[in-house]
Prior knowledge:
Layout: E1 2-3, E2 6-7, E3 12-16, E4 23-28, E5 33-37, E6 42-48, H1 50-53, E7 65-71, E8 74-82, E9 86-91, E10 96-102, E11 107-112, E12 118-123, E13 128-132, E14 141-143, E15 162-168, E16 176-181, H2 185-188, E17 193-198, E18 201-206, E19 211-218, E20 229-236, E21 239-244, E22 265-271, H3 276-293, E23 319-324, E24 329-333
Antiparallel strand pairs: 1-2, 3-4, 4-5, 5-6, 7-8, 8-9, 9-10, 11-12, 12-13, 13-14, 15-16, 16-17, 17-18, 19-20, 20-21, 22-23, 23-24
Amino acid sequence: MTKNDQYVYLRITFCHLPFQSKWLYIGTERGNVHIVHIESFNLSGYVINWNKAIELSMKKHPGPVVHLSDNPADPNKLLIGFENGVLALWDLVNKVADYRYNCNQPVHSIAWHYEGKQFVCSHSDGTLTIWNMRSPANPANIISPHAKVPAKGVKPEPCTPVLKVQWKSVKSGDPFILFSGGLPIEKASQTPSITIMQGKTTTVLEMEHPVVDFLTLCENPWPSNPEEPYAVVVLLESDLVVVDLASDGYPCFENPYPMTFTNPCTCIQYYADCPSELITEFYSAGASILNRKKQAYSQKNWPIKGGRWGACGSSNTEVIITGHADGSIKFWDASQ
């Protein structure tokens, strides 16, 4: 980033680009928010300093910026989340904080309801807090999705942090709250998962690998209208999973791309000019295995568009065979 033709070095902790905006909001480790024009990539002179955003009586540094988002109903109001759980709703025009919130728990993620009247925060203790924008004193609701309800006077069951939360609405029906993490500590190390809450129903989708990130796909891109979610893309350490939110039981979409390197490759062999009949038999054997798995897949087509095979393909029939640490052998068609 540049400012007055000079480089400015800042450790970035969060970025937010509002819908159809040319201004990128950048939160830093120091707790300040900078604004960058995305076409010139120059820093604006507008800086939101942490000591202006938080309560004047609070002298302790709130930590890095962990969240930035504009109010869906008013893009001039920017919600700033700090690591220690302090939040500020900043008026970009008047350069003041309209409201300040104290979560009393470190914050990992925040998501707005599309009406702009409420937002949900995820916390280190596995809880979710829902806040009314105009009532900063206390949260409207505290949810412990996976903690057992304790007896009176007993502390709730400890859970892992909820690392990310999203709040998506539909025109007819209850909204979705999706999040990663938040499981009881004894289960978390064994079961990476995504949790989907809708109305009174809570569904835990177990994953085969640790969750890196997830993103909800929606029919409507406008932030101030119901988003109409139809799928959630989950990036795992060794895979990419897409879940169908519009079908009963939340089945996965069949992935058209090979995500099969889940075990280290121990050996590899290349063969050229293979008999075409051999390639056909490999495809036939692979198809029989896939057909047995398809029963659990969504009946809908893969929802992510983009990416095509190159126009130039090889006329030779080539095969690559890889051996893996788990004892499996995989056959790859290298003719494309």
